[in-house]
Design brief:
Pfam families: Peptidase_M28
Shape: globular
GO molecular function: glutaminyl-peptide cyclotransferase activity; zinc ion binding
Keywords: Acyltransferase, Transferase
Structural class: alpha/beta
InterPro entries: Peptidase_M28, QC/QCL
Largest sheet: 6 strands, mixed
Radius of gyration: 21 Å
Number of helices: 8
Strand content: 5-15%
Protein name: M28 family peptidase
Distance between the termini: 51 Å
């Protein structure tokens, strides 16, 4: 009996030593240098979008924003593709939409895809006033685009190329779904009316046979006090990528923004990229397992007053670091 206890102690000691050595190897892992993510620059990109006005499809603000986005990617030396298409909205409106795709180092075989949506909600259906008026969408739409533009700027101008190709896609028509007040019995169930741009691109990629190693979707990534939980579909389709990104966030000191806690599945652009395009994509999105979306969601509170540079920094640094470690 005594010898069994001695064996057990030795076995536990060996396991502990092995764990210590493994942790030491992780700490000694050589990390690649990463250029600086500038939260002020990302903030200015969001402000510029809001200055155009609500980026609702079929409006002049939408067209002006598109021209500016394409111009920025061209300025950064990206290979840009505009994917124009039309789609029917839930209410029968014919929407003229454009997915914007930009590639850095298009010759690289291993590619990382970063995505956001650039359109804004056509009504404030969760508000109590001016419900029929479109929202600014500083966070819902603007923040993801702002972080992506800053990452594109940094990669293009820092003189430090990542060892992978990086693609950026801005989806259109994500936020033109049915109003919150629509009764289930009155809903048009013929298709999912959200994420029209990602649905179209996933079925009709801008380039035949396009694929990527994995993708990261950024949605509502700039609000004060934001917390980013591990979204359900991301865990289902790309658990290892979620674990990698969240681990990197904690390594960089952004653990408060990225709790190690799972949340519910939500229908967002990444669902169609996973299911149809077959590219594993995660969603960094502010959605709480306790109360769902923030109070600003689809209201006029979604303005520049909501945006916090600290949140932008936490997300931007985490994504940029992840890219440069590939």
């Amino acid at each position: 009996m005594k010898s069994n206890w001695i064996f057990a102690i030795l076995f536990i000691t060996l396991i502990a030593c092995g764990r210590d050595q493994a942790e030491e190897r992780v700490e000694e892992e050589e990390l690649r240098e990463v250029p600086e993510f500038n939260a002020d620059s990302a903030y200015s990109f969001i402000q510029r979008q809001v200055d155009f006005g609500p980026r609702v499809p079929n409006t002049e603000a939408h067209q002006e924003t598109k021209r500016w986005l394409v111009e920025k990617f061209n300025e950064y030396g990206m290979q840009v593709t505009e994917q124009d298409f039309e789609a029917k909205a839930y209410d029968g409106t014919n929407l003229k939409l454009t997915n914007i795709f930009a590639a850095h180092n298009p010759q690289a075989s291993k590619r990382i895809l970063l995505a956001a949506h650039w359109d804004t909600r056509h009504l404030a259906d969760k508000d109590t006033e001016n419900i029929e008026q479109p929202i600014d969408g500083a966070n819902d739409g603007g923040s993801g685009v702002g972080v992506i533009l800053e990452i594109a700027r940094v990669i293009a101008t820092s003189g430090m190329d990542p060892e992978v190709g990086v693609d950026f896609i801005l989806f259109d028509g994500e936020d033109y779904g049915e109003p919150e007040q629509t009764k289930p019995s009155d809903r048009n169930h013929s298709q999912i009316w959200w994420a029209l741009g990602s649905q179209h691109w996933s079925r009709n990629p801008h380039e035949a046979g396009y694929s990527a190693y994995y993708g990261i979707l950024l949605d509502m990534v700039g609000a004060k006090g934001a917390r980013f939980y591990r979204e359900g579909y991301s865990m289902q389709y790309a658990r290892n990528i979620v674990q990698k990104v969240w681990r990197n966030a904690h390594r960089l000191g952004h653990g408060d923004f990225f709790p190690m806690r799972d949340s519910h599945e939500i229908i967002d652009d990444h669902v169609f990229v996973n299911q149809v395009a077959k590219i594993p994509m995660i969603d960094i999105v502010e959605y709480s397992p306790d109360y769902g979306f923030g109070k600003y969601h689809h209201t006029h509170q979604d303005s520049m007053d909501l945006i916090d540079r600290r949140t932008l920094k936490a997300v931007g640094e985490t994504v940029l670091f992840t890219i440069y470690q590939e």
